[in-house]
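Morning!

This is the sequence you dropped in the shared folder:
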Amino acid sequence: MIIRRIKCLKYLGTRYNSSHYVTTPIFYVNAAPHIGHLYSAVIADAHCRYQRLRYPELDVRLCTGTDEHGTKIQQAASLHGVPVAKYCDDISQRYREVFSSASIQQDDFIRTTEDRHKRAVANFWRTLYTRGHIYSAAYSGWYCVSDETFLTDSQLRLDEATGTRYSLESGHPVEWTEETNYMFRLSQFQDDVRHWVKTEARIRPAKFEKILLDTLSEPLPDVSVSRPSNRVHWAIPVPDDDSQTVYVWLDALVNYLSSVGYPDEKFSVHWPPAQQVIGKDILKFHGIYWPAFLLAAGLEPPGQLYVHSHWTVDGQKMSKSKHNVVDPLKAAQQYTMEGLRYFLLREGVAHSDGNYSHVKAQRILNSELADTLGNLLSRASAKSLNPGQIYPSTSAEHLADLLRSLDAAKRLQDSLLQLSERCASHYECNHFHLVADTTMAALHAANNFFESSKPWTLKAGAPDGNQARLETIIAMTMNALRLSGIVLQPIIPQLANRLLDKLSVPTAQRGWNYLAESFATSPNSSNSNPGFGESRQLDGQTSALLFQRILEETAAKEVKEQKPQPAKRSKSKKKERRETMS
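The structure's back. Tokens below.
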């Protein structure tokens, strides 16, 4: 097999250089961006932010961009009554704006209409052609314009009433096409692609590996890699044959090479990608066609494909016909973009479709960001409790006593001791929902400790006033906030930075290694502020209000319209009053 013959290929899991190249799919500009597109981008961004945080010596590179060729683009531009080039410019810019708003930290935003990409596609085509992997032939088959792909009879369903055939996977209609195209000898690479797929952790989650292997269990037909230019003119011309244009998927896949400088030799510094984040709908193209194209060109396939599922809206598939497509910028007006990032990564799991619902988003963001995280910072930095506005150091005597005598203090210590290892394990697998789970568990423990230790009884002037013990409680609480802020930087970078700014944590002390330094790991030390020395002043320019609770407009109206209730004080009211006082 070719994999065994090409000795230079080293894609068996070993990192041979310091590069960590990650890609999102490039997004098709036939429509404006929605939360599914943003989900792909925040997965890749959070992954890259974690890699930089955990492995500062790595050269981490993230590429995203837009796919701008093909029949669907021609049709969309015509529908909007604008030239195709202008249409592509406008939609591509909207993707840039969404990603900028969402703090996507890409190193490159590539467009398939750029000259550097066209040059890369031409070189890649010539390489395949020179190596004998492309040939010309008459071709006929069922073509799906919406999916930009030919389909076999087994991939179709027939509507008996209308006689129309549809893609089984996407549900889009197909049309019979007969034309002379260039074909790629995909059948010759079936064994090599199967070998690549079966390599440990190549495709994640594992369910998508099984899907690919099921497809590969049947003979693969050769595939068309060009279309007649009189049918698809908005595309890259086939080198040395203007009568044909390059098939949109071959064109699009080469973007991952274009972004790192292919065909110039410098591209090899970053090649192959460590991880390519894709949606499940494009698994075949990335899991079968892409490795086959690369092997045919003598290049390494990617280290891993990370495949995520889709988003429904209130249990229904997102579609323009249902008018339920969620615009990220509009959603961010209600939840903030940090809140939207958190919800997508908190609620989404790669192996199953996520459900976007306003009720769920409001509940999660209010409960976790506003209450569990934000309220704890507000309480620990309240002027009534912390008039000096400091991040204090601990008293060794009181720290030891609290850990010995208060179960909530010991539970907090145990939770913080596990935070780094558990979250690192979850981040390595892109299990961002479990990172959030683990971090929120630590913050729940911190809230419980704060409540159980009753710091408001220790204030100056109180019968049991004890400044040293009070400052130790505040320091332990701020330790939990500091560690949580460090861990959450890849998921909610702006919010985490504001938290760390408020705590006056220097930028140089926000790395993953600083999770090992706290009262939890060094309970006998008098300094719970590693690198700080003595107590440190909080940042007065940064608000202690991290995340504003989301109040439903209709709910707010109902509250105003409610009749006054009897003046009976409930336990919850007592607790609310105590929190306000503290």
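Headline: Residues 434 and 568 are 40 Å apart (CA to CA).

More detail when I'm at my desk.
O.
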